[in-house]
Amino acid sequence: MQRPVAGVWDVPTAGILPALAVCSICFFAGGLLGCLLMARVAGGAGEGLEAYVQSFLRAAESGALSAPDLLPSMWECIRWPLLALLLGFTALGLLGLPVLFAVRGFLLAFSIASFVRVLGSAGCLLAFLLFGVTGAISVPVFFMLGVQSVLSARRLASRFLGESRQPALYGKAWFQRCGLCAAALVVCVVLEYLVVPMLVSGLAGALIAI
């Protein structure tokens, strides 16, 4: 039982930590920028943001979020991991993946900060339901695929420059990791489609009543 499981993590250990460090730094740098930008939103932009959040709450409370379309829910869950996976097939992923992680961190933090700014502590709970329930699955998947794509892109770049003749990391373990991530994203889609709208609608009704 141990060998198949261990095979999933069969990647060059010397490169995992640097790749993970690059992805993490870019992700959190983007997140910090998103929070700082939201803190500087003022005037008409701030009023527009508050109006948008309040209209979202009214739509959620009325049940408009109770039955989202399946395809948009699927795309919402898989788009970032899919981009991370695709960038691993080209040496340009060495540049594209850090940018991708920074953009993902920025958008996620900016979205969360928007609800917190308008609703205060209640916004933390609403943001958790909107982004945290599925994010607890999709973000680790995003990092797993991103790290392996950084390693693959680096190896492709080395081959292009003639520094290494080792093949890219597309072996059995690579397919096992992708399969594991795909199964996790299926769970994520189910939560996004069935569970999150119900939880958000219930919380929105309570916030509007207050």
Describe the structure.
- This protein is an all-alpha fold and 210 residues long.
- 83% of the residues lie in helices and 0% in strands.
- The protein is built from seven helices and no strands.
- It has helices at 2-8, 13-39, 43-61, 70-86, 93-119, 121-160, 172-209.
- Helix 3 packs across helix 7, helix 4 (70-86) runs parallel beside helix 6 and helix 4 crosses helix 7.
- The longest helix has 40 residues, at 121-160.
- The model is unreliable at 1-6 (pLDDT under 50).
Set out the fold topology.
Layout: H1 2-8, H2 13-39, H3 43-61, H4 70-86, H5 93-119, H6 121-160, H7 172-209
Helix pairs in contact: 2-5, 2-6, 3-7, 4-5, 4-6, 4-7, 5-6, 6-7
Number of strands: 0
The biggest sheet amounts to: none
Summarize the helix and strand pattern as letters.
HHHHHHH
Helix content: over 70%
Give the overall silhouette: elongated
* Beta-strand content estimate: under 5%
Over all CA atoms, what is the radius of gyration? 20 Å
- Unreliable parts: 1-6
Gap from first CA to last CA: 53 Å
